[in-house]
Amino acid sequence: MDDIDRKILAELQANGRLSLTDLGERIGLSLSPCHRRVRALEEAGVIADYRANIDPAAVGLSFSAIVFVTLRSTDRAAVKAFEDAVPQVPEIIQAQRLFGDPDFMLHVITTDLAAYQKLYDYSLSTLPSVQRLSSTLVMKNIVQNRPLPL
Question: Where does the record place a coiled coil (predicted)?
Protein backbone atom coordinates (compact mmCIF):
# COMPACT_ATOMS: atom_id res chain seq x y z
CA MET A 1 0.00 0.00 0.00
CA ASP A 2 1.44 3.34 -1.03
CA ASP A 3 0.51 6.99 -0.49
CA ILE A 4 -1.94 6.97 -3.40
CA ASP A 5 -3.81 4.00 -1.95
CA ARG A 6 -3.97 5.80 1.41
CA LYS A 7 -5.37 8.90 -0.31
CA ILE A 8 -8.00 6.75 -2.04
CA LEU A 9 -8.99 5.20 1.27
CA ALA A 10 -9.15 8.56 3.04
CA GLU A 11 -11.38 10.02 0.33
CA LEU A 12 -13.70 6.99 0.30
CA GLN A 13 -13.98 7.06 4.10
CA ALA A 14 -15.06 10.69 3.88
CA ASN A 15 -17.51 10.03 1.04
CA GLY A 16 -18.12 6.46 -0.13
CA ARG A 17 -20.45 7.72 -2.88
CA LEU A 18 -17.71 9.48 -4.85
CA SER A 19 -17.69 8.49 -8.48
CA LEU A 20 -14.42 7.04 -9.73
CA THR A 21 -14.02 10.14 -11.91
CA ASP A 22 -14.36 12.48 -8.92
CA LEU A 23 -12.14 10.26 -6.79
CA GLY A 24 -9.46 10.27 -9.49
CA GLU A 25 -9.59 14.06 -9.74
CA ARG A 26 -9.23 14.46 -5.97
CA ILE A 27 -6.14 12.26 -5.79
CA GLY A 28 -4.61 13.15 -9.14
CA LEU A 29 -5.24 9.96 -11.14
CA SER A 30 -7.09 9.37 -14.38
CA LEU A 31 -10.14 7.10 -14.38
CA SER A 32 -8.52 3.79 -15.42
CA PRO A 33 -5.66 3.70 -12.88
CA CYS A 34 -8.01 4.93 -10.16
CA HIS A 35 -10.49 2.17 -10.97
CA ARG A 36 -7.74 -0.48 -10.98
CA ARG A 37 -6.49 0.65 -7.57
CA VAL A 38 -9.96 0.73 -6.01
CA ARG A 39 -10.72 -2.73 -7.41
CA ALA A 40 -7.38 -4.05 -6.06
CA LEU A 41 -8.16 -2.59 -2.62
CA GLU A 42 -11.58 -4.27 -2.69
CA GLU A 43 -10.18 -7.63 -3.82
CA ALA A 44 -7.47 -7.52 -1.15
CA GLY A 45 -10.15 -6.95 1.51
CA VAL A 46 -8.81 -3.52 2.46
CA ILE A 47 -12.16 -2.04 1.45
CA ALA A 48 -14.59 -4.41 3.12
CA ASP A 49 -17.89 -2.89 2.00
CA TYR A 50 -19.87 0.26 1.27
CA ARG A 51 -22.89 1.35 3.27
CA ALA A 52 -24.97 4.28 4.39
CA ASN A 53 -24.16 5.69 7.83
CA ILE A 54 -27.59 5.97 9.47
CA ASP A 55 -28.41 8.11 12.49
CA PRO A 56 -29.86 5.60 15.00
CA ALA A 57 -32.15 8.14 16.66
CA ALA A 58 -33.65 9.08 13.27
CA VAL A 59 -34.91 5.50 12.90
CA GLY A 60 -36.14 5.15 16.47
CA LEU A 61 -33.08 3.45 17.98
CA SER A 62 -32.29 5.88 20.76
CA PHE A 63 -31.26 3.53 23.58
CA SER A 64 -27.78 2.03 23.67
CA ALA A 65 -25.84 0.01 26.17
CA ILE A 66 -22.46 -1.59 26.50
CA VAL A 67 -22.75 -5.09 27.88
CA PHE A 68 -19.77 -6.85 29.44
CA VAL A 69 -20.01 -10.64 29.27
CA THR A 70 -18.20 -13.17 31.40
CA LEU A 71 -18.45 -16.78 30.26
CA ARG A 72 -18.71 -19.79 32.56
CA SER A 73 -15.89 -21.41 30.64
CA THR A 74 -13.44 -20.04 28.11
CA ASP A 75 -12.56 -23.34 26.48
CA ARG A 76 -12.57 -23.39 22.71
CA ALA A 77 -16.05 -24.92 22.38
CA ALA A 78 -17.69 -22.43 24.77
CA VAL A 79 -16.08 -19.42 23.10
CA LYS A 80 -17.00 -20.68 19.63
CA ALA A 81 -20.60 -21.33 20.64
CA PHE A 82 -20.89 -17.82 22.07
CA GLU A 83 -19.20 -16.21 19.06
CA ASP A 84 -21.45 -18.14 16.67
CA ALA A 85 -24.60 -17.05 18.53
CA VAL A 86 -23.81 -13.32 18.85
CA PRO A 87 -24.29 -12.44 15.14
CA GLN A 88 -27.81 -13.91 15.35
CA VAL A 89 -28.87 -11.01 17.63
CA PRO A 90 -29.40 -7.98 15.34
CA GLU A 91 -29.45 -5.51 18.23
CA ILE A 92 -25.77 -6.30 18.88
CA ILE A 93 -24.10 -3.82 16.55
CA GLN A 94 -20.54 -4.51 17.66
CA ALA A 95 -18.95 -7.33 19.63
CA GLN A 96 -15.38 -7.60 20.82
CA ARG A 97 -13.51 -10.37 22.59
CA LEU A 98 -11.33 -9.03 25.38
CA PHE A 99 -8.26 -10.19 27.24
CA GLY A 100 -8.87 -10.85 30.92
CA ASP A 101 -12.17 -10.33 32.67
CA PRO A 102 -14.75 -9.71 31.26
CA ASP A 103 -14.48 -11.92 28.20
CA PHE A 104 -16.55 -9.88 25.73
CA MET A 105 -17.90 -6.38 25.22
CA LEU A 106 -21.12 -5.98 23.27
CA HIS A 107 -22.51 -2.72 21.91
CA VAL A 108 -26.29 -3.00 21.88
CA ILE A 109 -28.93 -0.66 20.47
CA THR A 110 -32.70 -0.74 20.96
CA THR A 111 -35.69 1.60 20.83
CA ASP A 112 -35.99 2.14 24.58
CA LEU A 113 -35.36 0.70 28.04
CA ALA A 114 -38.32 -1.70 27.84
CA ALA A 115 -37.01 -3.15 24.57
CA TYR A 116 -33.54 -3.46 26.11
CA GLN A 117 -34.92 -5.27 29.16
CA LYS A 118 -36.75 -7.75 26.89
CA LEU A 119 -33.58 -8.26 24.82
CA TYR A 120 -31.54 -8.74 28.00
CA ASP A 121 -33.98 -11.27 29.49
CA TYR A 122 -34.76 -13.29 26.37
CA SER A 123 -31.65 -13.04 24.18
CA LEU A 124 -28.52 -11.78 25.90
CA SER A 125 -28.86 -13.84 29.08
CA THR A 126 -29.59 -16.97 27.05
CA LEU A 127 -26.48 -16.77 24.87
CA PRO A 128 -24.33 -19.92 25.24
CA SER A 129 -22.06 -20.18 28.29
CA VAL A 130 -23.00 -16.81 29.78
CA GLN A 131 -22.17 -16.64 33.46
CA ARG A 132 -22.57 -12.91 34.06
CA LEU A 133 -23.76 -9.83 32.18
CA SER A 134 -22.97 -6.31 33.29
CA SER A 135 -24.55 -3.38 31.49
CA THR A 136 -23.46 0.22 31.23
CA LEU A 137 -25.94 2.58 29.66
CA VAL A 138 -24.63 5.03 27.09
CA MET A 139 -25.46 8.61 28.04
CA LYS A 140 -24.11 10.31 24.91
CA ASN A 141 -22.00 9.43 21.88
CA ILE A 142 -19.02 11.74 21.57
CA VAL A 143 -17.09 10.01 18.75
CA GLN A 144 -18.82 7.49 16.54
CA ASN A 145 -17.97 5.91 13.18
CA ARG A 146 -14.78 7.92 12.95
CA PRO A 147 -12.70 7.32 9.81
CA LEU A 148 -9.42 5.48 10.35
CA PRO A 149 -6.44 7.82 10.75
CA LEU A 150 -4.74 7.16 7.43
Answer: none
* pLDDT of the chain, 150 residues: tens digit per residue: 999 999 999 999 999 999 999 999 999 999 999 999 999 999 999 999 999 889 999 999 999 999 999 999 999 999 999 999 999 999 999 999 999 999 999 999 999 999 999 999 999 999 999 999 999 999 999 998 888 998
- pTM value is 0.87
Q: Provide the β-strand partners of residue 21.
A: none
Q: Which fold has domain 56-137?
A: Alpha-Beta Plaits (3.30.70)
Inter-residue contact 60 to 115 (CB < 8 Å): no
